[in-house]
Amino acid sequence: MERYYYTCPLLKMSTAPIAIEDEGGNAVGSFHRIFTTRTNKAVSWVVDNWQLSLEGRHIHSELHVKIMDSSPWLGRRKWTITTMREGRESLSFLKDRSKIATHPRLIWRNEEHEYVIAKDPLNRTTTISDSCSHAIVGEIAKVPGGKLNQRELVIYENALCPLVLPCIDRIMKTIY
């Protein structure tokens, strides 16, 4: 079991880097919101969440994550997740399968696994579960007694990347 902490910005349009720390308070990596063009950034001010793309880097290794919005038009929410690790590039996909805005649900197809990422409307905890075994493999929740937007990421399975999950959580917090 691994624990990581990060603080989400208050503003949706913020492009400031967000540090990810381990239990000891050591920085592990960071991620931030990106815009592909200045036009997309300007349109995002007018049309809420026009483009929602993120990029993350691990401090101690060559791990690099890029989540690109595949379809900003008409609310079709799809993202392409590119993970570059040790010269290898892997591609996965994230789709919004929410039926009601009060209970958002994303499907993440990562290599041969499929994960369901859902947010509980009452206690605002995001759970990551394996769609085949229905086992919870990770949780993201607000830190009790912590800073205003401080979040805690708990990973129960080592196959999950500690850079991708905070980025997906930022997407969920921005949209819903």
Verbal overview:
The chain is mainly beta and 176 residues long. The chain has helices at 38-46, 164-175, and strands at 2-7, 18-22, 27-34, 53-58, 64-69, 78-85, 88-96, 105-110, 113-119, 126-130, 136-142, 150-155. A 12-stranded antiparallel beta barrel has the order 1-2-3-4-5-6-7-8-9-10-11-12. The longest helix is centred in the last third of the chain and has 12 residues, at 164-175. The chain starts with a strand and ends with a helix. 23% of the residues are buried.
State the share of residues found in helices, binned by percent: 10-25%
Strand tally? 12
What structural class is derived from the secondary structure elements? Answer: mainly beta
How would you spell out the order of helices and strands? EEEHEEEEEEEEEH
Task: Record keyword descriptors for this entry.
twelve-stranded antiparallel β-barrel, 2 helices, single chain, 176 residues, 12 strands
In short:
The protein is mainly β and 176 residues long.
